[in-house]
Here is the input.
Amino acid sequence: MEQVVMNTALKESESLLSEIEHKSHVDVKKCYQCGTCAAGCPVSYVSDFTPRQVVKMLQTGLIDEVFKSHMIWLCIGCGNCVARCPRNLNIPHLHDTLRILSKEKGYPCAEKDVDIFNDSFLKTVQYTGRLYEAGLTMLYNTRSGHFMAGMDVAPGMFMLGKISPFPHLIKGRKEVANIFKKMREMKGAK
Ligand code: SF4
Ligand code: SF4
Here is the structure.
């Protein structure tokens, strides 16, 4: 019988899919495309792809398209899809993994503001040990260029005591900062 030689692109796509499945603990081959996740997803209607389509693209090797997609950034991690999936696929975890890998592999981010927001959120947690709402707003607004974002509701929230100009520092913030440090060391980042 003639030996079939797998072409390089196919091999690369298969090894990338293995990496995605290994890191996300999601076996995309289990999905039988019932569409239940897409039907319950609150962001599908504003996105370029539904969660079902993201899984289908992974199954068929369209990994570049997935890395460039808006869906992996627009997913809000609500868990509707996991709760309803008959195959128990953890789609939000899959999307988280895809975000991380797309950044690591240098793909252009389809939703830069989401990336900036996530990063600003984590920075406040790193330095104060918990979310610092005013700090997050300042960081996000300056880094994204949306200088007035949230300014319409901020005075009312200050008046109601829902946000404070100063951070509430927790006791174990040194330990929290160490978690970030350890993660950076593990990834070999600065
Ligand atoms: S609900 Fe689960 S099995 Fe059905 S399409 Fe979505 S991921 Fe696939
Ligand atoms: S977790 Fe993400 S993909 Fe799943 S339903 Fe919610 S927004 Fe949609």
About this structure: The pocket of iron/sulfur cluster (ligand 2) is lined by residues 40-43, 51, 75-81, 91-92 (CB under 6 Å).
